[in-house]
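Predict the holo structure. Ligand: magnesium ion.
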Amino acid sequence: MAGSRFDRIPTVLRSQEILNKSFSKVAKIMEPGARSFEAKVKKEVIDKISTMEAIITSYFRKLVKKFPSTDELHPFYLDLLDLMFDVNKYKISLSKLQRTSENISNIATATIKKVKKGKTVFEFNRLLKGYYGRVSSLVKDLKNDLIFLSECRDNMKRIPSIDPNLPTFIIAGAPNVGKSSLMQSLTGSDVKVATYPFTTQSIYIGYLHRDGIRIQVIDTPGILDRPVSKRNVIERKAILALKDIDSVIIFIFDASQESYYSYDSQEKLFNEIQSTLGKEMIRVQSKADISEQVEDVFISAKKKTGIKKLLSIMIKQAGNDSHENR
Ligand SMILES: Nc1nc2c(ncn2[C@@H]2O[C@H](COP(=O)(O)OP(=O)(O)OP(=O)(O)O)[C@@H](O)[C@H]2O)c(=O)[nH]1
Ligand SMILES: [Mg+2]
């Protein structure tokens, strides 16, 4: 399976787990003897307050940092996330984590100040208890946000890792026309498999390097092989997210006897994909070894003919794209 670009998001603990973790750390704190019993307890209490603060705030800061901010996400990912969960709620939950983390720091600082001024063990313990109470309730207030973010993470990990900034070619065409065979000829073994959200399909993401350019090729079996209008709403939206990726479609026609689909119906699919995705399309005819030529670009993945011509078209296209991006 291909790693998702969201693989680095850490596990989201539950409120109670966060508290248990920090309480068990804090319980181990023991200061060596000091001038007096009061001085020893004072040191321990201060240590407990700042240790608890450090554990919890560093965890929340890590979450806030590792969950991608929606402002930085490419529209392709944002569109898919939007289908998976409430993106606004996601933003709010993350900012609550941020705010709680700041609150805990402030409370810790204020409490430590009071402890420093305090005199009696009774006072220290009362302040510590008060601090624990406030921190616990702040963390418990995040219960639903943490559960929600954990679900977001599970969903995000299922998104295939497509690099929207690379020159990209998406292979489309009716079933069995030779999409995967062409992919194999173009990219060799540098291919990752991923499931595409809301479809039962896998997509294959491959790379090739030519003239210092890295090119991404995506094979979409079962995704762009029948009219998008025949999909249910959510499947259609998931497929339409591909629109966000600046790409060119390599559309494969099969005119051989093997083909299950008439040339006419393949032409219809071509038009349908062109109008739904609104992308530039390269017409490629496959299985040259067993077909009569119809299209200009005529390849055989089996006999490795015509691939060079297609590659040069792709490289030219990719070169143009990277010029525009400069
Ligand atoms: N003779 C010949 N057969 C080919 C060629 N390319 C593919 N095939 C055959 O056509 C069949 C389908 O090839 P695939 O590459 O799996 O086609 P696909 O479009 O990926 O199929 P789906 O993913 O099922 O839609 C296989 O039996 C291939 O061996 C070719 O250039 N020449
Ligand atoms: Mg295939």
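The first strand starts at residue 168 and ends at 173. The pocket of guanosine-5'-triphosphate (ligand 1) is lined by residues 173, 175-181, 221, 225, 286-287, 289-290, 300-302 (CB under 6 Å).
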